[in-house]
Amino acid sequence: MAGNWKMNLNHLEAIAHVQKLAFALADKDYEAVEVAVLPPFTDLRSVQTLVDGDKLKIKYGAQDISAHDSGAYTGEISGAMLAKLKCTYVAVGHSERRQYHAETDEIVNAKVKAAYKHGLTPILCVGEELDIREAGNHVAHTLSQVEGGLKDVPAEQAESIVIAYEPVWAIGTGKVCGAGDAQEVCQAIRGKLAELYSQELADQVRIQYGGSVKSGNVAEIMAQPDVDGALVGGASLDADEFVKIARFRDQ
Ligand SMILES: O=C[C@H](O)COP(=O)(O)O
Question: Record-annotated residues binding substrate (predicted)?
Fold first, then answer.
């Protein structure tokens, strides 16, 4: 269960938030579900210090990565910098990056490779806009983003990727993709991984669903055979709610 905070919570709020999560999750059930947070870049050092100092099992990562290693790229953050902060994950190709920062599949692919180069696990975000779904092209569109993001990525790297299926029309809108609809696309993503690599690799890759996930709908989504986790936006900003989502099995 990963919480993408997007552009919310400063570094002080981040500390309080992660402390609350860690306290609420620190019991025997905690290890049953891997919990990760993706704070803004400016929070990462504070989160790292807290996680290291208190030996928390919460994982963390960034919301984006530069395709470049270093140099004159004002405002960018490199994979080496994220690795130095001991990030585990980095989201790549989130629809908000594709929409507001014109990230193409080529750029997303370069970022996936940059993540692997620096030992980070990419969470490759894919998913269709509303008009594409209404035209019935959601599966083909999403699979082409999977293929584009993984172009020339070898199996020994791709086996650790996390893929987040996030239909754009369900992000932050309260419109949840039906569990069956989410399953349809997640199953197709697994099929595409089997085609690109092998069934064995496809079976071990974690596929998340994202888009208005809340404590009230997570159990139904997680019951789908090809949904292995969730990438949670808005609801991850409320620590109590995010804990309920991570504890979906208790429902
Ligand atoms: O990365 C998370 C997704 O964009 C979902 O956001 P949301 O839970 O606010 O709809």
Answer: 4-6, 172, 212, 233-234
**Would you list the domain boundaries of the chain?**
2-250
| 233 among annotated binding-site residues | yes
CB-ligand 1 contact for 3 (6 Å cutoff): no
One of 3.80.10.10, 3.30.1490.20, 3.20.20.70, 2.30.30.230 is the CATH number of 2-250, namely 3.20.20.70
Under 8 Å between Cβ of 3 and 37: yes
- State how far the Cα of 85 lies from the Cα of 35, in Å rounded to an integer: 18
Whether 217 has a binding-site annotation, put simply, is no
Over residues 66-94, the pLDDT tens digits come to 999 999 999 999 999 999 999 999 999 99
ipTM of the modeled complex = 0.99
> How crowded is residue 250: how many other Cβ atoms within 10 Å of its Cβ?
9
